[in-house]
Structure formats: C-alpha cells, structure tokens
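Incident review: delayed structure delivery

Summary: a single-chain prediction request sat in the queue longer than the usual turnaround. Root cause was a stuck worker, restarted by the on-call engineer. No data loss occurred. The affected request and its eventual output are reproduced below so the record is complete for anyone auditing the incident later.

Affected input:
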Amino acid sequence: MQEFWSQYIELATGTFAVLAVAYLSLLLSWPIFLLVEKFKPVTQYASRSQYALNWKITCSNLLLAPPFAAMIVLFAVSLVNYSGLTQLRIPTSELSVGIPFLDVILQGIVIFFTAVFLGDFWYYWWHRAQHKVPFLWELHKLHHSDEHMNSTTIYRSHFLEPAGQALVKGLTIGLIFDVTEAPETVLAIVAAGLLPVLWDYFIHANVRIDRLNRLMPFFSVPQYHWIHHSKMPQHQDKNFAIWLPMFDVAFGSYYRPSVDEYPASGLSSGEKIESLWEAQTGPFSAWLQMLKNRYARRPRGQIS
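Output delivered after worker restart:
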C-alpha cells in the first residue's frame, strides 16, 4: 500500500507539472494568437468575460485534474502490466549516429512522428466516443459550449478530461520506446510533445487563413476543426482528428468545408455554460439526472 501511495503522489506531482507547463505555454504564446485573431479573424473578437471564464476553468483544472489523472494513469499502467500488453521498449539510445546534436534531432523526429500518428489514432476513437456515449459527452460538452472560438478554447474543458486524455495519449511512445537510457532524449520528448500542443492552440483560434485549407484532407487546419465545433446539424460528429484527417476519411467522419463555410460554434442544443461553477459541476448534475431517469423507467419491484 505504501508503494501504491508513493507512486500515486509521484504521478500526481508529475501530472501537475505537465499541466502547468502546458498552460504556461498557452499563456506565453497567447499574445501572438491575440494578434493573429485580431488581424485574421473569422468572427468578432471574444469579449474579456469570455476569455476570463476560459482562464478560470484552466486555472481550476490545474488544481483539480492531477489527482484524478494520476489515478487513471496508475490504473492503466497496472492494467498494461497485468494484461501483458506488448511493449516493444526500443531503447532510444539505439536511435543514434554517434553525434549528440544529431542524435537529439533524430530522436526528436522519430518520437514526434510516432507520437503524432499513434496519439492521433487513439485520440480519434476516444474523441469519437465522447460524442457518442452520453456519459462521456456530459464531460466533453463544456469544450464545445464556447460560442466564440479562440485559442483559449483548447483548455476550456472539465477537470476530468485530462484523465481520459492521459489514458489514450499514453498508448504511444511509452509502449514503443524505452526513454530511460538516453538523457538527451528528454529534450527530444519535450519538443515532440510541445509542437502538437502549439498546433492544437492554433486550430482552435479565431483565425482565417484560406491558403492553409489546401492542406486538407492531408493535415488539420483551423477551418477543418472549426467545423467540428459547429452547432449546425450537418456538421455534428465530424472532423474528430487533431492532426491527421486521414482517420476521419478512413472511418467516415470527414467533412470538407467550402471556402466560406465558417458556421457558428457552440452547442446545437442552445445550452450555455457561463460560470465556473456550471462548468465544473455540470457533468455530476447530468449524471445524477441520468440515474434518476433510469430508475424512474424501471418497472416497480425490479431490483436491477
């Protein structure tokens, strides 16, 4: 039991550090996104109150998310070890040409593309499940409730979301590479992890750059993800991938927008989430209502 709590505290601390770095990277890059959103906007600029709510949600997640994310990660690691899930565990030190500087570049490239491909594949299915399973949708809909898309929308999510993301995104380099043997690999992992995050900020931004749309369906761009946040019926459950639309193409959820197709974002139900309390307690209220509805539908005398 002592070993369990020791691992748990270590994971919770590590999760806090990872989230802190991620949120700090958004804060530091935010001025750039504000400028781009000012000169290349899709719609009107988000108000100060809308930015403020997104930042309140983000800051609260820094405190609330780590304990739950650490528990899920610890459970997942135990499950992997117990099930004997195949792990290649290729030492990153073998990805070497003998020149430290080039080794970092080589390792960064290999880890980056592995993380992007596998991470996007697993996240595609997790993301799709969030839209299809009512229990998971109650967590995810906070992210879709932003009616003024901007770079801070990326972290407008419930504090339990990082736990699910940690579970699916962990099924990437951790199963492929052993990253313990090469100290210089730390830099490669940081670079490979940071670049996708920065692109994630960009595709949520209130920005229109039509030239980028030529990259569809080979690569995700802001308009591609804008469609995913649309409240219009024809756009529901489309464009789940973060990096590679190839997964949407392969599994029938791809939607290619026309040149001027930038629909209103938000929840198709018209529901609005306008306070930190609503944002963080909403799923629990919804789950409780689901249980009440299920109980109310049971025939009298039925136990289960």
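Verification: Residues 2-39 form the longest helix (38 residues).
Action items: add queue-age alerting; document worker restart procedure.
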